[in-house]
């Protein structure tokens, strides 16, 4: 199981936002499937995009870099949105190593309103 706690302070650079969010994900390494659910509240507006991004050079919870989009979430982004996709072996390694983050963008904060590192959870 993987998770990311999303806040405005997690953005690079940090943004002022009352928004918070939580990504919960399951990585099935046998089928190479990543499945997720994302909840959020308090955003400045309706989410216009969301992404899994990485890899960053660090591992863990330090959020000082921006990285490329690896998975563009194009579904309805209402809180509680879900999705799944097949990923590569390199993606699996980067996720396991803590080198990805999740980001939600709004019209008022098009560079990202809330974000957080994806880490293992029990």
Instruction: Give the uncertain stretches in residue-range form.
Output: none
Largest sheet: 5 strands, antiparallel
Number of strands: 9
CA radius of gyration is 13 Å
Pfam families: CHRD (PF07452)
InterPro entries: CHRD (IPR010895)
Organism: Methylocapsa polymorpha
Keywords: Plasmid
Spell out the blueprint of helices and strands.
Elements: E1 2-7, E2 20-28, E3 33-41, E4 47-53, E5 69-73, E6 81-86, H1 89-96, E7 101-106, E8 114-117, E9 119-120
Antiparallel strand pairs: 1-2, 1-9, 2-3, 3-6, 4-5, 4-7, 7-8
Q: What would you note in describing this structure?
A:
7% of the residues lie in helices and 44% in strands. The protein has 122 residues and is mainly beta. The protein has one domain (2-120). The strands form 2 sheets. The protein has a 5-stranded antiparallel β-sheet, covered by helices on one side. A 4-stranded antiparallel β-sheet has the order 5-4-7-8, with no helix packed on it.
Short description:
The protein has 122 residues and is mainly beta.
Features:
plasmid, five-stranded antiparallel sheet, CHRD domain-containing protein, 122 residues, 1 helix, 7% helix, mainly beta, four-stranded antiparallel sheet, single chain, CHRD, 9 strands
